[in-house]
Amino acid sequence: MKNIVKSLIILSVCCLMATHGKAQSMGQKYYSTFSWSTSLPMGETKDYIGKFSVRGASFEWGGFVKPQVSLGINIGWNVFYEDQGRGTYTFDDGVAVTGNPQNYINAIPVIAKAHYHFKDPASTKSAPYVGVGIGTTWQKRNTDFGINSFYSDGWMFGLFPEIAVNYSINPYSAINFNVRYNYNFKNDQVSELSYFGFNIGYVYKY
After folding, report:
1. How big is the chain by its Cα radius of gyration, in Å?
2. What does the alpha-carbon distance between residue 155 and residue 158 come to, in Å, rounded to a whole number?
3. N or C: where does the chain have the smaller number of CB atoms within 10 Å of the terminal CB?
């Protein structure tokens, strides 16, 4: 999976650099987006932690290959937490323990993305778009149970469809509103990770 991360970064950078001259001739610019990320667990993830999370951040860098088509790479960090309450819990090995477990998930997604903008962002104030991403997420799950801690961690393959809108403040900056579904497939190291991400960010265009 580490090789996949490197490959995604290299591929995205090469695609953007290769289109630099074309983008300049179209009057398009590169962008960097710094976002606050909130998350709503879904599917099997919700069974482990169902609480909405406000702890997250992401950075995205990209550029336009056509007036309404952009490519980018996004790196984020999301933290989930839920106190399960005091009770008696039975583990996979049949051992029953009474206590107050606390569940945590740390997730670091690395995503290569492509977007289609319904309007040319260079000529409109509000530019909605759809996107699709492919990448990998490092996930660490741990349950703190008194003085004991049980955890699993590993890299996962994921798909990341999204809808969003950029609202321009001036020619050099915009506000981004983004909803992304993060779906990461279960493997032999970690369980499935799925959640909706609700993101708001500042976009710097250059």
Report:
1. 20
2. 10
3. C
